[in-house]
Design brief:
Blueprint lengths: L2 H15 L13 H21 L17
Length: about 70
């Protein structure tokens, strides 16, 4: 990840953190997506507290067949 990507990700994180979950989701994009991202983070954090451990995920993908 280059410096530009890091700055961009930091800016996106700031936008997400500014979302107010006590309000209805915004109607306009991309604010609406940021609201749902913050909500997802909140739900994950709550589930981790209930379980007493961090959540994990496993993604298994299959490569495309190679055609010669």
């Amino acid at each position: 990840m280059d410096n530009h990507e890091m700055v961009f990700n930091t800016e996106i994180d700031k936008l997400i953190e500014r979302m107010d979950l006590t309000q209805e989701p915004p109607v306009k994009e991309p604010e609406r997506q940021y609201w749902f991202m913050k909500k997802a983070r909140q739900l994950v954090q709550e589930k981790e507290q209930v379980l007493g451990r961090p959540l994990t995920a496993c993604t298994v993908t299959f490569g495309c067949p190679k055609y010669d």
